[in-house]
Known about the structure:
By secondary structure, this protein is mostly helical. It has one domain. Helices cover 74% and strands 4% of the residues. The chain has a two-stranded antiparallel ribbon with strand order 1-2. It comes from Flagellimonas spongiicola.
Amino acid sequence: xxxxxxxxxxxxxxxxxxxxxxxxxxxxxxxxxxxxxxxxxxxxxxxxxxxxxxxxxxxxxxxxxxxxxxxxxxxxxxxxxxxxxxxxxxxxxxxxxxxxxxxxxxxxxxxxxxxxxxxxxxxxxxxxxxxxxxxxxxxx
Length: 140
């Protein structure tokens, strides 16, 4: 267990400016996705501040842990993380899926959470790539 915590501490011990870029990008991304999900009536958070808990307090640390892994590994580990997050959000009713939304229409209501997890797992490899590019451009 000590080896695991050493790994985690090593991965999250990053330049504070990099952490700031992650937080700004993920918060903006989260607010945009929450707005889009509500606008097209797919799904939304029950409360706006859930963007902070999900995107910054959950997804940023996982992104840091997955940083540097190949795309497919980031996606696979991200899928596990997002599966748990999506399952928990809908089970606890802290997220709301609009009835008969476009995801339900294409994939069936029973596949909604799976579809959301499959989509949002892309955030980890894409987010790490985007943050890396922005960080390098600003702090070169």
